[in-house]
Amino acid sequence: MMATESKAPIAVISGDLVDSTALNRDEYERVLAEIKTIQAHISQAHRANQHSIIRGDEFQSVIHDVANALHYVVMYRVAIKALGKPFDCRISFAIAEQADLREAVSESMGQAFVLSGRGLKAMKNQRLAFFCANTDIEDRFALLIRYLDRQLSDATSRQCEMMLPLLQRDQPLPYGELAAALGVANATVSKSLKAAGWGLIEALLAEFQQAVGAHV
Predict the structure, then answer these.
(1) What was the pLDDT predicted at 119?
(2) Which InterPro entries match (predicted)?
(3) Model confidence over 142-180: pLDDT tens digits?
(4) Using one digit for the tens of pLDDT, what is the confidence trace for 19-63?
(5) How far apart are CA 151 and CA 13, in angstroms?
(6) Cα–Cα distance between 128 and 59 in angstroms, integer?
(7) Domain limits of the chain?
(8) Burial per residue of 53-90, b for 16 or more beta-carbon CB atoms within 10 angstroms, e otherwise
(9) Is the pTM of this model over 0.85?
(10) DSSP state, 95?
(11) Spatial contact of 38 and 133, defined as CB atoms under 8 Å apart
(12) 201, 193 in Cβ contact below 8 A?
């Protein structure tokens, strides 16, 4: 199959499920369905975005709206953790120019694929890593990504359940509407999001979008 050369920067998100062998059949079906839902959402945001699921516990996304890459990464992580305590994932994502893209994501090639894949294999204690061919961008966000990883790792499934609708909306979602949708009090939503550090996470996503958007 012929490859399409992309000279513009792309982002590649590579992830796998944590302790996937410990999941029973029902749990596996739930997380697989959630991954597909998130991938569909990412494709709705940009038609050229592509995805794959490998061996059932590994997933990958090719992102053309690169400024939104971190947003999609957080969406993946939050959506999977929202399913409950047994669920989490590790994600490595990278941004780079020049790629040979094919219909099958697993057959595509380029620096972003290499950086993302190597980063995932090299992970030890962390569950989120970022790499960029533009070292200024990578260095700028190195410490912030470590903070974000810690914040998401500490977030409860309930807190993730509340953050997910906020990540899936293009427009701000009033806490009152979120509370009504989840069947909880407004104060519960406000308290949970504050405990999850949502305000800082939201600010980091905006800063990443602005910084990367200015360099692509």
Answers:
(1) 96
(2) WH-like_DNA-bd_sf
(3) 999 999 999 999 999 999 999 999 999 877 788 888 999
(4) 999 999 999 999 999 999 999 999 999 999 999 998 879 999 999
(5) 19
(6) 14
(7) 4-213
(8) eeeebbbbbbbbbbbbbbbbbbbbbbbbbbbbebbbbb
(9) yes
(10) E
(11) no
(12) no
One-letter identity of residue 68: N
Please indicate whether residue 169 or residue 207 has the higher confidence score (pLDDT): 207
CATH number of the domain located at residue range(s) 4-213 in this protein: 3.30.70.1230
What is the C-alpha to C-alpha distance for residues 87 and 77, in angstroms, rounded to an integer?
Answer: 9
Q: Which residues in the chain belong to E strands, given as ranges?
A: 4-6, 10-17, 50-54, 58-63, 89-96, 99-101, 109-110, 128-132
Reference 83, options 23, 39, 129, 41; nearest CA is 23
Q: What is the DSSP string of 103-135?
A: SSGGG-EEHHHHHHHHHHHH-SS-SEEEEESSH
Go through the chain and tell me how many residues it has: 216
89-96: strand order across its sheet? 50-54, 58-63, 10-17, 89-96, 128-132
